[in-house]
Design a protein that fits this description.
119 residues, two-stranded antiparallel ribbon, 3-stranded mixed β-sheet, 1 helix, Jelly Rolls, mainly beta, 5 strands
């Protein structure tokens, strides 16, 4: 069973964007990154079709080696993310992969995997 997406559990892979506990603002500047000097910021929104059948079988993972990527679930009741660190051989380290599911509110917490993290 996937565990809840919580900041302390996701820390090895990036940042969970949690709302401030009191009035005010939280900054996540350290979560954002791009190691390519000629790269420009990019923002897009994607719609993903719900799964037609379960169980889910994840057959491949991707990573952005030089830049962070933010995930902000919109209008979904539940979702799952699978993350894994990059090992020395350049593929995902399946032995350290984590399955995490949304945990608060109807959409759950937005999150930002660090550059190089497979998802």
């Amino acid at each position: 069973m996937p565990s809840l997406l919580r900041a302390e559990d996701f820390a090895p892979f990036g940042d969970v964007l949690e709302e401030p506990k009191e009035s005010g603002r939280s900054y996540f500047n350290c979560a954002l990154g791009n190691g390519r000097t000629a790269a420009t910021p990019s923002l897009s929104i994607a719609r993903v079709q719900p799964l037609a059948t379960l169980p889910l079988s994840a057959t491949k993972m991707e990573r952005h080696e030089f830049s962070s990527q933010s995930f902000v679930p919109l209008g979904v009741s539940r979702w799952l993310v699978i993350v894994a660190p990059k090992p020395a051989n350049d593929g995902p380290d399946a032995s350290k992969a984590r399955r995490l599911r949304n945990g608060r509110g109807p959409e759950g917490s937005p999150f930002v995997p660090t550059p190089g993290t497979f998802r």
